[in-house]
Design goal:
Layout: H1 2-53, H2 57-68, H3 72-103, H4 105-108, H5 111-123, H6 129-134, H7 138-159, H8 166-188, H9 205-233, H10 235-255, H11 257-271, H12 275-312, H13 320-326, H14 329-344, H15 350-402, H16 410-432, H17 437-459, H18 462-483
Helix pairs in contact: 1-3, 1-5, 1-7, 1-8, 1-9, 1-10, 1-11, 2-3, 2-11, 3-5, 5-8, 7-8, 9-10, 9-15, 10-12, 10-13, 10-14, 10-15, 11-12, 11-14, 12-13, 12-14, 12-16, 12-17, 13-15, 14-15, 16-17
Length: 484
């Protein structure tokens, strides 16, 4: 079951990368830096309201649903209580969003996009992804997501063709939320029915308030860089910066893919006091982050100019340096995901999580206001990277004090040694041949080949071996069908 969930969640992460490589470059080239910047600016504000309105239910819901799976009565009441709480809070924040949009000039001038953002806010209530993650329905999540993303791509290429189509582009994003909400709401009825009778909402207030506080301060350092950059420097730098962030965070979906699968397992293991299983799961997760995070980070630094130039065009050249400055967050966020969401949160240590993110918020605000006025999008990138590093280190300190798990740093060392070869390969090819699309593709393929050969034959990395075995098993199952 675990291997199957890992496979489908990894497939989901890869699809997210391919989706972003198709959609965002097309939208950026079509709408231009200012156009895509205005959408990103409003969407960052929408995401702030969306995250706060959710209270922390996406985190709390996964944890509690996974614990209640074997108690049908508790399972049903928990589901209904969390949906109702989310619905009430969203109604309040819809009103708040409208008020903010009417009185803040920089937001009001994009009121057509705000209306779409309000629709996204409402749809998010019934998306209920936390429910399906809690019951480990990653196969369904992957299939549904691929269908919705495919539909989005078709609609985008049919209707979005010129500058001024920002509302259409954002509207199709909202349609994706709607489709996900409809699919999830009706599919959830297979497992549980939504009820408004006999609900006890109060018992969830204290843990949700703590997680809400964490989400509020977390929102500041996750989304405020775009918002602050937009207010201080305008829409065009937001377009440059958001492009770099988009590429960096595409890769993060791969590095954190295993974490989403492990959270329900770790929560369940902690309920059963099975600390041996927790240690085993964390070891796998740490190895996974090192194996994929380190080479992606180094590769991003080397190929940054090529990626920006080929995918987005010369107009986005100012995005190159921010991308290279943001590259370390691929490893950093991967580690933070382990310390915070796979250890502290499943163990119910929400107050420690709050302490970590408050510290991160303070660092983020200070660095953003110190760097953005002078370095624009480059300053935002520096601020983002240092903030994430601060959060990672502070969360690691808390985890180390718990003495529940220990980390073997050998996977990090091996991945660093294998990735260091990238600089030699890139220098040799660039020194011998002119820099073209073909040479850059050769650099990427050769680096990947050498790295995985190193991990497979020298290190004998169990993560790589497991991936190969899973792919082989899938091919073996498909082969008989093709022979019929």
């Amino acid at each position: 079951m675990l291997k199957k969930n890992i496979f489908f969640n990894f497939l989901l992460s890869v699809s997210q990368i391919l989706f972003s490589l198709i959609i965002f470059p097309y939208a950026s080239r079509t709408l231009g830096p200012a156009g895509i910047g205005s959408v990103v600016f409003i969407d960052s504000i929408t995401q702030i309201f969306l995250l706060i309105a959710a209270l922390g239910i996406p985190i709390y819901g996964i944890r509690e649903i996974s614990k209640a799976r074997n108690d049908p009565e508790k399972f049903a009441s928990l589901f209904s209580e969390l949906v109702v709480i989310h619905l009430i809070c969203t109604a309040l924040f819809v009103v708040g969003y409208i008020i903010v949009a009417l009185f803040v000039k920089e937001i009001y001038i994009h009121f057509n996009l705000v209306i779409i953002g309000l629709f996204i806010l409402v749809c998010n209530v019934f998306t209920m992804e936390w429910f399906f993650q809690g019951i480990e329905q990653f196969t369904y999540i992957t299939k549904r997501t691929l269908l919705v993303r495919g539909t989005f791509i078709v609609l985008l290429f049919i209707f979005v063709h010129k500058k001024g189509d920002e509302a259409l582009y954002y509207g199709f994003t909202a349609a994706s939320y709607l489709f996900n909400a409809l699919f999830n709401f009706f599919y959830s009825r297979k497992y549980v029915k939504l009820s408004f009778k006999g609900l006890d909402l109060k018992k969830h207030v204290k843990p949700l308030v703590i997680i809400l506080c964490s989400n509020i301060v977390m929102t500041v350092y996750l989304l405020m860089d775009n918002t602050i950059l937009g207010f201080i420097k305008g829409e065009t730098p937001v377009g440059f910066y958001s492009t770099a962030v988009k590429i960096a965070k595409i890769s993060i979906t791969i590095v954190t893919a295993l974490g989403a699968v492990l959270i329900p397992q770790i929560s369940s293991a902690y309920k059963d006091k099975d600390f041996g299983k927790i240690q085993s799961l964390i070891n796998k997760s740490f190895n996974f982050v090192c194996t994929f995070g380190v080479p992606i980070c180094i590769g991003m630094i080397i190929t940054g100019p090529f990626l920006i130039g080929i995918i987005f065009g010369k107009a986005f050249t100012p995005s190159i340096l921010p991308l290279q400055l943001l590259s370390p967050i691929i490893i950093i966020i991967g580690m933070t995901n382990i310390f915070v969401w796979q250890i502290l949160s499943p163990l119910g240590m929400d107050k420690k999580v709050l302490t970590v993110v408050v510290f991160g918020m303070i660092v983020s605000l200070v660095l953003n206001f110190a760097t953005i006025p002078y370095f624009s999008q480059n300053g935002a990138a520096i601020s983002n990277t240092l903030t994430e590093l601060t959060v990672m280190v502070s969360s690691f300190i808390f985890v180390r004090r718990l003495k529940i798990v220990t980390l073997d740093i050998k996977p990090l060392i091996y991945s660093g040694l294998g990735s260091a070869l990238f600089f030699v390969i890139a220098y040799a090819i660039h020194h011998l041949f002119a820099q073209t699309i073909i040479t850059e593709v050769c650099v990427i393929m050769l680096c990947a080949g050498v790295y995985f050969a190193f991990q497979l034959y020298v290190v004998k990395n169990q993560i790589i071996l497991s991936v190969i075995n899973m792919v082989k098993s899938k091919l073996i199952k498909v082969a008989p069908l093709n022979n019929q």
